[in-house]
Amino acid sequence: GNGHVDKRGALIVLEGLDRCGKTTQCSRLVSFLEGKGLPVEAWRFPDRSTNIGKIISSYLTDNSQLDDQTVHLLFSANRWEKRWLMENKLRNGTTLVVDRYSYSGVSFSAAKGLDIEWCKAPEQGLIAPDIVVYLDIFPEEAAKRGGYGIERYEQLEFQGKVAHCYKILCNSSWKVLF
Ligand code: NYM
């Protein structure tokens, strides 16, 4: 075209339990795509660099107590505050490889017992991913990996509930990797 980008970037989301290897696979995928000469960026949620992200980060490291609904909405707001930048990047042809997205938001909150439909509601209107890759791992396996148990949620029983919620959200368009 006339100087503008004809091809939208892809929104690629990686999901899975804590310590399933998402972060490693995200950076491998980013390197691979870079190697192909594609404009690509690694993103992650929560984005702890924003004001909302800092509240979330302190909640995850146990320095603050917040009720489940409030935390849920903060995680969602953290995606909303990045939505416009995300749209611009994609429009300009940059592919985004995103470590966690709405599915983490819904699964982790629903695992606490919040109504799953209530959890989905604030995610409506965020940009839909082109691909969701789910890294399937037994919670017992993840628990053996380094660093497990440092942050809130990194407990075997809870991760089992999260896995169950992911399975409710999973559909045939997801690529499930073992
Ligand atoms: N998490 C992440 C949520 O509970 N809701 C969300 O919307 C998102 C994006 O935050 N245990 C949880 C999952 C993780 C924790 O993520 C921090 P990470 O990928 O360890 O930084």
From TrEMBL:
UniProt keyword Cell inner membrane, yes or no: no
Keyword Signal part of the UniProt annotation: yes
Annotated EC: 2.7.4.9
Enzyme class: transferase
Pathway: Pyrimidine metabolism; dTTP biosynthesis
GO molecular function, one term: nucleoside diphosphate kinase activity
Domain Thymidylate kinase-like, chain residue ranges per copy: 14-172
Example of a GO cellular component annotation carried by this entry: cytosol
GO BP term, pick one: dTTP biosynthetic process
Family in the record: Belongs to the thymidylate kinase family.
Name of the protein in question: Thymidylate kinase
